[in-house]
Amino acid sequence: MNIKTPKVIANWKMNLMPHQAHDVVENIIDLCPKASSDIIICPSYTHLYPLRDLIKDNIFLGAQNCHDKTSGAYTGEISALMLADLGVSYVILGHSERRELGPYENLSIKAKIRAAFNAGLQVVYCCGEPDSMREAGNHEDYVLKQLSSDLFDFELSELTKLSIAYEPIWAIGTGKTASPEEAQAMHLFIRNTISQQFGIELAHSMAILYGGSVKAKNAGILAFQNDIDGFLVGGASLDPNEFAAIVNVFL
Ligand code: PGA
Which of 6, 44, 95, 155 could join 37 via S-S bond, C-beta 3.0 to 4.6 A? Predict the structure, then answer.
């Protein structure tokens, strides 16, 4: 691990009822009294307002998506400005579960990142290859294409508000985690790519998080890798004990 403040993100996806959210987050806070990481809770939109009063010090709220426009006739959508107005600090963009919705989603990621930056939000940008690309040995090319089409048009100064989550699709919700060596190799590849494109300073200050079946039992060895600066946790973030144990590997 390096000296950046680690980030551990709870991606609840479409789980938990609004009335359960407060207790779950309070439990997490109680179980991580000495957390040295930033803890970012990303529930469904409906839970953001009731969780506002728990934001403090190293506890932040994040959303799982936002729209690329600020307002208008977009029935059912939520703008980045609306999230920021609610006290939300982060937004996850480019998650593979959203990219699977179709080409519009992939093509709108850059515009969503721009909208999030304009609203003052921090972005957790997700990338990662499907199983077939890893098996064919094309995983680096695949991730490079994602990075170049979604990020390369931004200014260096804008990207200080971006973290990258490497989430191999074959590891999400499958119980199959990337080995520490596989994850480290891809994180280093991502950092080198950012360095070549935007310079070494940004590359070194950028948090690169791992996501994909992170559990208490594998978090320690993954966190030990040089280029893993935190985690994006799905399933295990619904259980306060499990999630707190993941946060606490960074103590
Ligand atoms: P998982 O999900 O931890 O359940 O694999 C990670 C994610 O989708 O962000």
Answer: 6
Q: Which residue's C-alpha comes closest to atom 7 of ligand 1? A: 234
Contact (CB, 8 A) for 69 and 81: no
Percent pLDDT > 70 in the chain is 99
Question: pLDDT tens, 3-13?
Answer: 689 999 999 99
The pLDDT, as a whole number, for residue 1 is: 44
What local confidence, expressed as pLDDT, does residue 99 receive? Answer: 96
Confidence at residue 103, expressed as pLDDT on a 0 to 100 scale:
85
CB 106, CB 99: distance < 8 Å: yes
Options 97, 129, 167, 242, the catalytic residue: 167
47 is catalytic: no
- pLDDT above 60 (res 38): yes
- How many C-beta neighbours within 10 Å does residue 173 have? 12
Q: Is the CB of 167 under 6 A from ligand 1?
A: yes
Q: Which of 79-93, 96-110, 232-246 has the lowest mean pLDDT?
A: 96-110
How many angstroms separate the alpha carbon of residue 217 from the centre of ligand 1? 15
Q: Is the CB of 78 under 6 A from ligand 1?
A: no
Q: Half-sphere exposure of 150 toward its Cβ, with a 13 Å CA cutoff?
A: 26
Q: Which of 214, 215, 222 most suits a substitution to test ligand 1, by most atoms within 8 Å of the C-beta?
A: 214
What fold does the segment set 7-250 form as a domain?
TIM Barrel (3.20.20)
Angstrom distance (rounded) from CA 101 to CA 103: 7
* All structural domains of the chain with their residue ranges: 7-250
Active site residue 167: yes
